[in-house]
Amino acid sequence: MNDKYDALKSNVSMLGHLLGNTIKGAHGDELLAKVEEIRQLSKSASAGNKDDHAKLIDVLQSLPNDQLLPVARAFSQFLNLTNIAEQYHSVSRNCEELICSPDALDDLFQRLKGNDVSSIDAEKAVEDLKIELVLTAHPTEIARRTTIHKLVQINKCLSKLELDDLSSTERGKAELRLEQLIAQAWHSDVIRQQRPTPLDEAKWGYAVIENSLWQAVPEFLRQFDQKLTRHLGHSLPVDAAPIQISSWMGGDRDGNPFVTAEVTQEVLLLSRWKAADLYLGDIQELVSELSMTRCNDIVRAMAGDEHEPYRAILKSLRKTLTNTLECLDAQIKGQHIDEKDILTNVDQLWTPLHACYQSLHECGMGIIADGLLLDTLRRIRCFGVNLIKLDIRQESTRHADVLSEVTRCLGMGDYSQWSEQDKQAFLIRELSSKRPLLPRDWEPSDDVQEVLDTCRIVAQQPREALGSYVISMARTASDVLAVHLLLKEAGCPFRLDVCPLFETLEDLNNAESVISQLLNIDWYRGFIQNFQMVMIGYSDSAKDAGVMAAGWAQYKAMESLVSLCENAGVDLVLFHGRGGSIGRGGAPAHAALLSQPPRSLKGGLRVTEQGEMIRFKLGLPDVATNSLNLYASAILEANLLPPPAPKQEWRDLMETLSDVSCDAYRDVVRGSKDFVPYFRSTTPELELGKLPLGSRPAKRNPNGGVESLRAIPWIFAWSQNRLLLPAWLGAGQAIQYSIDNGHLKQLEEMCREWPFFSTRLGMLEMVFTKTSPSISQYYDEKLVDEALWPLGEQLRERLAQDIKAVLMVENSDHLMEQNPWGAEAIRLRNIYVEPLNMLQAELLSRTRASEQESPELDEALMVTIAGIAAGMRNTG
């Protein structure tokens, strides 16, 4: 590879060397020699040496039980360190043009000038810019909070070592600190011993904000402001809040019995506590900094006769924040304390600090005002007093169950058996009525009581503490009206955005009809005040129909909803339920956003950031700043330089591709009698249940088959054996079908000119590059009944044919031709991932054959799962 990658390779080599020192210190020369032998054999095997490939298998199969865990840990840890080096390199001083694109916003502003976009239009787009990231605790994040802290510290060391003018003493100190951190990580549990609770997940989310986003948001806004001034000649208003952070952690109860009303209440209190704690840190620093004596009349009136007026105001705020922490601490512990002089709303922080900001500017000290004080003001606008806005998510049938119990108690029959028309008539009548619906003497079942308790918790919160109420598996207009009625019955004093989530292929296709029905209801139109949020499900639609059909259904649903709401005069926000993996809608953020239908980002972007992708995209301040930059540039570009609407012949061909791919996908997943037993044996799906990843059970219905699996373990399991089946199955077959029917030229045109289609092919290329047919075959031979082998062979043959079809459309000789660094990064990782794959297959074979539980083998297996996930990156 090009020597431009030397800086990255040097860091990878150094971290590997330090890890080797740690392994030697902990386990001696013999184990280190064994790890190095495996690494060298894997490197040679990757280069095509068949003898060394066979030797590698022999070495791994002959490892004694006591070496399985440390060897697995060695390769898993190396992949974690490689990820750190690569993540750091993307924001380092040595990030060369080949790897890192020019600054996305600067590049966009230059192109706006070239496309004659008026500065008025650009300013309006900036004013309307909204990026809301919704952090979710999906169970693919293996790293514990303690590990994440160490990763941040390792990055700091890499940054220091990059400086050219370091003295030998300083360099030695930084290298020693690095070795200490790597040793700390090695000697800590990589895997959690207990499954995290929803409260643990929420705390993980707060740690991401504290360690990264608290610095990244004001830094991004500072850089954004400078670019606006340079390119458009105007600055970002101090109270601008284009970034918002929301969360599902502690609010997402869909299929998670551990998220109760009490948990949600505690998460909301903890969130406020963490916000007050972080603001207190800022105020402490400002007390040290703002010792100036000159001020304007407003600040003088606020400070009284104090000689240092800014400090007087800040010390008063410090006292309020200290009181707030004491009060919330008591509430979290279930104790009562008087709520006097505590922080309850944003204005208590904003008003005095903004007054200080204006005073400093008026008194010729703007350079001081535009430092930490401005950063704090930006944080107040982004994070508020609640730190994050908590979404509530519940499955649609749980609300119907409540109403069924109520109507039965009132002698009205069973709500769930009524027609959709009768349900809507009943719901609208009750929503318009002044009298309460819930009977006084009614004793609801436990499940129903839980839904009602959740609605009461919502009603007790200030509006700004909450994001939206998401209804998973929403299918009808009554699903949305039911939630509004339950919130009304709970005494909710404000309008909460109730957001239907359309997940399956059928539901996506019906989305326009459902929203149209709602907008035709007079009560509903008056209540929503011309604002509607709709969530597009990427995970379950792909699991239901395959990636090609799901992608087209998502596109058409967005397109039709945009037109419907525009014609009705309703502001629409599309909420994207993307995961990290391709099978769950994952794609590089910039490309994914620009491939959406025209005008679909007019209302801004609301998107889930899930699992390990939170760490990769938002886990370090510089990386998070870069991610926000990419999001902002993509939204502005989509709104100012919108992609072309697809030609009718493209749409027609896309319908064919969708139908053929869906049939091909379902023919295997639903139609093959051997599929479920094959899936269960060739992947570690059953063993994933042992891994204490997320708080949620792996299945919605523990007794169900593949259809009851959550989309995440479904994808996760297939990424482990390197077949990555859900991320490609059906797509290439549909492309080949269209080529065979004379549509190659049209496919090539779509690839060149339609961002939606070219992004789909780019995603497929990346998936294909990460697959390994030889590893998949190895799993089959080790783990699968010989009678099922033909199915695996057919799927691998299908994979080979699909790769040829995609390369033909793209006129490429090999995969990822346009992204050589991405291809090289995957190739480099494979040297460390493939031994883990082989080791995992060996461990699965041993644990499945053994009649006794072996904690040591189980732990080694968990480590291989974690290591492969780290190597594959976008796993779930």
From TrEMBL:
| Species classification | Bacteria, Pseudomonadati, Pseudomonadota, Gammaproteobacteria, Vibrionales
The record's GO CC annotations read: cytosol
Any one biological process term the GO annotation gives: tricarboxylic acid cycle
Query: Which Pfam family would be a valid example here?
Result: PEPcase
Write out the catalysed reaction: oxaloacetate + phosphate = phosphoenolpyruvate + hydrogencarbonate
Q: Name one GO molecular function term.
A: phosphoenolpyruvate carboxylase activity
Highest taxon of the lineage: Bacteria
EC numbers on record: 4.1.1.31
Q: What class of enzyme is it?
A: lyase
Purpose: Forms oxaloacetate, a four-carbon dicarboxylic acid source for the tricarboxylic acid cycle.
Which residues constitute the catalytic centre? H138, K543
TM region(s), chain numbering? none
Question: Quaternary arrangement and interactors, per the entry?
Answer: Homotetramer.
Its name, as the record gives it, is Phosphoenolpyruvate carboxylase
Family according to the record: Belongs to the PEPCase type 1 family.
